[in-house]
């Protein structure tokens, strides 16, 4: 259990510095280039542990597995994390961190719709409170950076889609969390690399450039990599992505899903404080109020995650009478 708490602390800190580190990298990397590099590096960091677990489970890697991880990698890396990277360029790192931390709320909603998982009253209450907190932070009546906010919310939504598909795989085919994350990162990175290469094909590059999508035309592969930028790249790839996700999934194994989810519950409060200390980003009053509301919603989510297993266990212990 002590190991589990250590994993939670490490994962929380690393995830809370993710947006700040990307912001500090500035214009050194193209957003999509950085997305590709850090997840490819993170995938390779996870690979040895993933292979050990895959072999221990005596699994084979065929077309079925390739298709599944291509799907999860597409939603996670190609869509969600691309939106995430672009969002940081349009708005504050703290805003992106807070809004992206809403992904567990969307996971609960999508899991109820598509996986038919139980939605308790506490879950519904947490959804309502969390969405209220998001609206307070966004303040739709005076949006200063609507593009950044929209991209942040889309990143959270599609990361939740990735999470629900991954959860389906872990339930149906018993894929482990680390294996799913590793192979999703590597195959999703390969899919993104393919799209980056296509962006250099002259007809596509010209079409994108002429239709207001120059950002997606001729995406560089390794142009930002240098001795000067290497420490930040390694921190994002090895630290935040590789070690961060490893700690998160190991925390689940050492403790429980409920306790491990504290990572995303604490991040909305910790990330803005770190952004203030490191980047000097101010914390407006509405953002501070929104953070408190989000933390309340997250606390209710945490409580509901602890109560549902108890209810299930009680029902199994005392099944209804049948004649």
From TrEMBL:
Position of the signal peptide: none
Transmembrane found in the keyword field: yes
Tree of life domain: Bacteria
Keywords: Membrane, Transmembrane, Transmembrane helix
Membrane topology of the entry: Multi-pass membrane protein
InterPro entries in the record: AA-Vitamin_Transporters, EamA_dom, EmrE-like
Domain EamA: 3-138, 147-302
Assigned protein family: Belongs to the EamA transporter family.
Protein name: Membrane protein
């Amino acid at each position: 259990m002590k190991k589990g708490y250590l994993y939670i602390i490490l994962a929380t800190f690393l995830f809370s510095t993710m947006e700040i580190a990307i912001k500090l990298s500035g214009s050194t990397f193209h957003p999509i280039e950085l997305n590709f590099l850090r997840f490819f590096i993170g995938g390779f960091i996870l690979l040895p542990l993933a292979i050990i677990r895959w072999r221990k489970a005596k699994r084979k890697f065929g077309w079925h597995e390739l298709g599944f991880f291509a799907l999860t990698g597409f939603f996670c890396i190609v869509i969600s994390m691309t939106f995430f990277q672009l969002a940081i360029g349009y708005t504050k790192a703290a805003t992106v961190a807070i809004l992206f931390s809403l992904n567990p709320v969307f996971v609960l909603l999508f899991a109820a719709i598509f996986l038919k998982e139980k939605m308790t009253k506490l879950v519904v209450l947490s959804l309502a409170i969390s969405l209220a907190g998001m609206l307070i932070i966004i303040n739709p009546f005076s949006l200063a950076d609507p593009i950044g906010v929209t991209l942040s919310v889309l990143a959270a939504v599609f990361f939740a889609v990735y999470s629900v598909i991954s959860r389906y795989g872990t339930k149906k085919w018993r894929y482990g969390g680390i294996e799913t994350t590793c192979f999703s990162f590597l195959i999703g990175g390969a899919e993104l690399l393919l799209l980056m290469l296509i962006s250099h094909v002259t007809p596509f590059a010209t079409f994108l450039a002429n239709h207001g999508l120059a950002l997606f035309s001729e995406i560089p592969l390794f142009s930002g990599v240098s001795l000067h930028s290497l420490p930040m790249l390694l921190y994002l790839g090895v630290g935040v992505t590789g070690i961060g996700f490893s700690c998160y999934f190991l925390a689940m194994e050492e403790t429980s899903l409920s306790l491990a989810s504290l990572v995303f519950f604490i991040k909305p409060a910790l990330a803005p404080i770190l952004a203030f200390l490191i980047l000097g980003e101010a914390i407006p009053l509405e953002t501070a109020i929104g953070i408190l509301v989000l933390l309340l919603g997250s606390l209710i989510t945490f409580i509901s995650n602890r109560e549902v297993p108890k209810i299930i266990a009680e029902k199994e212990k005392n099944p209804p009478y049948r004649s």
